[in-house]
From TrEMBL:
The lineage of its organism: Bacteria, Pseudomonadati, Bacteroidota, Chitinophagia, Chitinophagales. GO terms for molecular function: DNA binding; sigma factor activity. Residues 25-91 form the RNA polymerase sigma-70 region domain. It comes from Chitinophaga terrae (ex Kim and Jung 2007). Belongs to the sigma-70 factor family. ECF subfamily. This is RNA polymerase sigma-70 factor, ECF subfamily.
Length: 180
């Protein structure tokens, strides 16, 4: 195995030298794997994360900072990848729970009545919005279009789309809070 200084490693990775990259992988992947396993408690997931870190290292080779030791960089990148994956899974779980809650049939007649009343208030608040603002909001939330798609269809700037969405959300929030 090649014994390289930090400067040689950084220069080799920046120049996309496969031998240097392979040597770095062989030297640091085991310790990165151990870090990942501690965070995610799953060997396959840990392997995937180590691969992701090295893939990102290869993709961003020209941006590699030569001031930090490569082992510190790789350890931090591994921890960050693990934390990002954990946060993503938590968001996914929260979303799934929310969707299950929304899909649960309402058995309580009071809850059903409250839901219908809230929907009516929402539609009234929606009708109070300026026409263009309402159209942008409905295209975004109702039709699932991206701001870029909305801007293209309505022939307006993307900043105008964002402004309309911000205005709509703010007004709807105020109207719905005032009604309750």
């Amino acid at each position: 195995m090649l014994q390289l200084s930090n400067d040689e490693i950084v220069k080799g990775i920046r120049s996309r030298n496969k031998d240097v990259f392979e040597a770095v992988f062989k030297q640091y992947a085991p310790s990165m794997y151990n870090i990942a396993v501690k965070y995610v408690q799953d060997t396959d997931e840990a392997n995937d994360m180590v691969q992701d870190v090295f893939l990102n290292l290869w993709k961003g080779a020209e941006n590699l900072d030569d001031r930090a030791p490569i082992n510190h960089y790789l350890a931090r990148a591994t921890v960050n990848t693990c934390l990002n994956r954990i946060k993503k899974e938590q968001r996914k779980e929260t979303y799934t729970k929310e969707q299950m809650h929304l899909a649960t049939p309402v058995s309580d007649s009071t809850a059903l009545l409250e839901r219908k009343e809230l929907e009516a208030q929402y539609h009234l608040a929606l009708e109070k919005l300026p026409e263009q603002c309402r159209r942008v909001f409905e295209m975004s939330r109702g039709n699932g279009l991206t701001p870029t798609e909305i801007a293209t269809q309505l022939n307006i700037s993307i900043n105008t789309v964002y402004a309309h969405l911000t205005t709509a959300l703010k007004r709807l929030r105020i109207d719905l809070i005032n009604k309750s």
